[in-house]
Specification:
Blueprint: H1 28-40, H2 42-52, H3 57-82, H4 88-104, H5 109-140
Helix pairs in contact: 1-3, 1-4, 3-5, 4-5
Length: 144
C-alpha cells in the first residue's frame, strides 16, 4: 500500500468537560459533608423543638428547601472543581439528602411520596448543576 492512499489520523478530540470516575474513597469528604448537613444539622431543629416546645417543622422545611439545596450545590461544585464531571455523585448525595427527609419530616403518609419526589428532583438538579459548573471551571482554568 502506498503512502498516498493512507488516511491521516485526526488528533484526539479534547473532551468538553473533564470526567472523573466515581470512587467512594476519593469522594469521602464530599459524602461526609453531605451526611453532616443533612443528618446532623437537622438534629438542632429537633433539639430546639423539644427545648422550646413549639412546632418548628415550618422552619425545618424552609431550611431543607433553601439552605440545604444551596449547600448541596456548593458540595457538588467543589467536587466538580476537584475531580471533574461525574453523574453518579449528584444521584448519590441526593439519595442521602432525601433519606434525611424521611427521618426528620413529619408529614401525613399521603403527602410523603410526592414530597420526597419533589425534594429528590430539586436536590438532583442542584447537585447536577453544581458538578457541571465546577467541571466547566476546572476545564476553563485548566486545573489539572
Amino acid at each position: 500500500m502506498s503512502k498516498k492512499n493512507r488516511r491521516k489520523t485526526l488528533p484526539a478530540r479534547k473532551e468538553a468537560l473533564p470526567r472523573a470516575e466515581f470512587n467512594t474513597y476519593d469522594s469521602k469528604a464530599y459524602i461526609l459533608a453531605t451526611l453532616i448537613i443533612f443528618h446532623i444539622v437537622p438534629l438542632v431543629f429537633v433539639g430546639l423543638k423539644f427545648a422550646m416546645k413549639q412546632e418548628l417543622m415550618i422552619l425545618y422545611t424552609q431550611f431543607a428547601i433553601y439552605f440545604n439545596s444551596s449547600l448541596l450545590a456548593v458540595i457538588a461544585f467543589l467536587y466538580g472543581i476537584k475531580k471533574g464531571f461525574n453523574l453518579k455523585l449528584p444521584f448519590f448525595i441526593s439519595v442521602i439528602a432525601v433519606l434525611s427527609l424521611v427521618f426528620y419530616a413529619e408529614y401525613a403518609m399521603s403527602q410523603t411520596l410526592p414530597m420526597l419526589i419533589a425534594f429528590g428532583f430539586v436536590y438532583v438538579l442542584f447537585s447536577f448543576v453544581g458538578v457541571l459548573i465546577g467541571a466547566y471551571i476546572k476545564r476553563v482554568f485548566k486545573m489539572d
